[in-house]
Amino acid sequence: MQHELKSKPFLGLLIATAIVILWITSLVVLLPIDSAYLMPFWIVPAVLVRTFFQTGLFIVAHDAIHGVVFPGNLRLNHWVGRIVTTLYALLPYQKLSQNHWQHHQSPGKIGDPDFHDGVHRNLFAWYLKFMQGYLDSRQKTILFFGIGAIYLILQFGFHVSVSNLFLFWILPIVLSSMQLFLFGTYLPHRLENPENRHHATSSNYPLALSFLTCYHFGYHWEHHEYPFLPWYGLPAAYQNRAARVSNTQEPQSYTIEIQQEFKRRLQRDAIAVSSRNR
After folding, report:
1. What is the per-residue pLDDT across 11-37, written as a single tens digit (0 to 9) for each?
2. Are 85 and 54 in contact (CB under 8 A)?
3. Three-state SS sequence of 151-179
4. 43-57: per-residue pLDDT in tens?
5. How many domains does the chain have?
6. CA distances to 47, 81, 117, 118, 167 from 132, in Å
7. Residues 6+ apart with CB under 8 A from 269
8. What is the extent of the structural domain holding 225?
9. What is the pTM of this model?
10. CB atoms within 10 A of CB 198
11. How far, in Å, are 104, 111, 132 from residue 107 at the CA level?
């Protein structure tokens, strides 16, 4: 594990490309289908698959914010991030980056833009507060006119039905935001534990279920402890931690050299993003 990130510099970019291709392919295949003749047991899996790929776009953007889609070239790394946030829901990459760095600096407490307001801690109120942190009035305007323009082009230019646009494009965006919030924010950060410096807990899902729920982001303590790891590196970190607790095997080591190298890159990039937003 010590040299895995250095020895596979293109892996993150290849995985990100694969997710984007799957997202585009599923959209191109499903939009023209006559959903009126599809049975519900076909529509539901199709929507869930689209939601999973939709979430994948955001996971790629998240890794780009951490500089691990293509660590060897941060300019290309962030270019990928901007593309996938636009595909996801016309979201501003710099705003997402700024909010996410604040989240890592003050996870699960005051100053964390993803945390609840201290009063409304239930699932639905927290979700609304979470979404408001990313959808200010400017972004709502961009979404309204941007999605409206795309809707008109697809309906009148390519004759895509309204039902298909809703089922295979709009609905997966909404469901994906709920999935990301539930498994990436609410469940990991809902328990307040001052002894846990990350204010985060990890799920104990099996590997396959962890992947299906939210690309392993249920292993959330590991993400905060090792922010230089891409999403597909979190299971190894989780297993390493479990082995260290149970003492059943020799845990893998994450060298101080690699940690410091990535932390320097991330801090330098965070400063650059912050200065551009001023």
Report:
1. 999 999 999 999 999 999 999 998 777
2. no
3. HHHHHHHCCCCHHHHHHHHHHHHHHHHHH
4. 999 999 999 999 999
5. 1
6. 25, 21, 12, 15, 24
7. 67, 74, 78
8. 4-276
9. 0.84
10. 18
11. 5, 8, 18
